[in-house]
Design goal:
single chain, Rossmann fold, 2 domains, four-stranded antiparallel beta sheet, 9 helices, binds adenosine-5'-triphosphate, nucleotide-binding, ABC transporter ATP-binding protein, ATP binding, transport, ABC_transporter-like_ATP-bd
Length: 295
């Protein structure tokens, strides 16, 4: 299957500090992929590399088989809704659509107008007069009407209330299904990603900790609880994610493709939030995670 995003040894340095390092990723086509991680993990850096707004310090990145920003044809295939869903406050919705038509060769004006009408938005209204949720919907409309093959969104719902978030994500899912659109979406709200994503990338402290199809990740990660045990004694096919101990008891989160038969363990499944938090627990204790979990 084609990769919408393929990174090999990808890294980006600001001054002497790596914002992203040793990133190997292969995000397949046809997914709504979630990029999750705490503040400062490198999500925006990775997305800006994917849309060609940054160039790598190390390694390679290919988006839809080409170097991001390598020419007009490549740029036309990728839509980008940047952080805080930027729009021009002094321009009306209709003017935004006209600008979109001028700037994008594949612009689908009927789709844009229809979507604005379905949202009940007045085309004559200036973007500066819209609510945060309406502005986000306008930015999403501009991204979809470009008719890209991949739509990249950087924390598009962070500032929205739960209802506006739900409406926005619903619109995104409908567009992805209707227009065979691949989506790469960052958020630190695990519950939002859980609702819309079927592929997940966990980024912590500038490194990809785990990536894969959500169903497969959930099927291969387990929490083991039982009598205290040295993690070094786990079978070699059980990859340890996190370990914690009391005086008598050990709790491990492991990743394994194999069934777990050891009768000493009580085995429980993880939900997506548990899984993300387990990988975040691997980070150094010097900086605390600020990942939000909202229901
Ligand atoms: N232009 C820049 N100059 C210097 N350092 C930067 C710059 N942009 C980002 N960084 C640093 O790179 C690291 C990764 O930042 P990035 O914005 O990619 O993280 P993020 O995961 O998107 O965070 P957030 O969730 O807060 O948006 C951070 O330590 C940040 O301070």
């Amino acid at each position: 299957m084609t990769a919408v995003l393929r990174a090999e040894g990808l890294g980006k340095k600001y001054g002497s500090r790596w914002a992203l390092s040793d990133c190997d990723l292969d995000v397949p086509d046809g997914h709504v992929a979630g990029l999750v991680g705490p503040n400062g993990a490198g999500k925006t850096t990775l997305l800006n590399l994917a849309v060609g707004q940054l160039t790598p310090t190390a390694g390679h990145i290919r988006v839809l088989g080409e170097r991001p920003g390598s020419g007009p044809a490549q740029l036309a295939k990728v839509g980008f809704v940047a952080q805080d869903t930027p729009t021009y406050p002094g321009l009306t919705i209709a003017e935004h659509l006209r600008l979109g038509a001028r700037l994008n060769p594949g612009w689908d004006d009927a789709l844009a107008r229809d979507r604005i009408a379905r949202l009940g938005l007045d085309p004559g209204r200036k973007a500066g007069r819209l609510s945060g949720g309406q502005r986000a919907q306008l930015a999403l409309t501009l991204g979809i009407a470009k008719r890209p093959r991949l739509l990249v969104l950087d924390e598009p719902v962070a500032a929205l209330d739960p209802l506006a978030r739900r409406e926005f994500l619903q619109g995104l899912m409908e567009a992805a299904a209707e227009h065979q659109l691949s989506v790469l979406l960052s958020s630190h709200l695990v519950s939002d990603l859980e609702r819309v994503c079927d592929y997940l990338v966990v980024l912590v402290d500038s490194r990809v900790r785990v990536a894969g199809e959500v169903d497969h990740l959930l099927a291969t990660h387990h929490r083991l609880t039982g009598p205290r045990r040295d993690p070094g004694r786990l079978p070699s096919d059980q990859h340890l994610v996190t370990a914690s101990h009391t005086e008598r008891q050990s709790t491990f989160v492991v990743r394994t493709e194999a069934a777990i038969h050891d009768p000493a363990w009580t085995v429980t499944r993880l939900n997506l939030e548990d899984l993300v938090l387990a990988y975040m627990d691997q980070r150094t204790e010097t900086r605390r995670p600020t990942l939000e979990v909202q229901r």
